[in-house]
Design goal:
It contains 1 helix and 13 strands. It has about 160 residues and is α+β, with helices and mostly antiparallel strands. The N terminus is likely disordered.
Length: about 160
């Protein structure tokens, strides 16, 4: 009987460990309610990614027009520059917002770069696209764009929308 019980436990326990480990690793960790996507780490009150993208959870710092730092283009989860904010500055390639837990989330924006940026409805820059001119901002998205952006591209110095 003991031998039978030990055999059953030897089969069942590793299965439970593997199953629970797989389920836990599939869900991203959270920082102040914001998912930490692969490659991200918490630094002070933000989630920082190796490519320089920063996600700032709502309630951290100032949730207002001025919370987007100089030299960044920022997307905000809520109108009037509120809610979670994601910041970009690296140019040229389309970046999928899902990489930062921000897909179909943007409701306002500010561009504090000296170049234009674009957001696209589809991943990888698939059209339609909306230009975020350098130095411009909006407290809400234009018609059809609220919670619709799936990717963003910061333009280089010679490329404007």
């Amino acid at each position: 009987m003991e031998r039978h019980l030990a055999f059953v436990l030897a089969l069942v326990i590793p299965t439970l460990v593997v199953a629970s480990g797989t389920a836990a690793s599939a869900e991203p960790r959270l920082f102040k309610g914001v998912p930490i996507m692969p490659g991200g780490h918490v630094a002070e009150d933000s989630i920082v990614y190796p490519d320089g993208v920063v996600v700032v959870p709502a309630g951290v710092g100032i949730e207002a027009f001025d919370s987007c730092p100089s030299g960044k283009v920022c997307l905000f989860a809520d109108p009037n520059w509120a809610g979670n904010m994601v910041q970009f500055s690296t140019c040229c390639a389309w970046v999928n917002l899902s990489n930062y837990g921000f897909n179909n989330t943007a409701s306002s924006w500010r561009n504090r770069l000296n170049v234009d940026a674009q957001i696209a409805d589809g991943a990888g820059g698939v059209s339609p696209r909306l230009c975020l001119n350098n130095g411009s901002y909006s407290s809400s998205m234009p018609s059809g764009w609220n919670n619709a952006a799936s990717s963003i591209r910061v333009r280089d110095g010679a490329g404007y929308c």
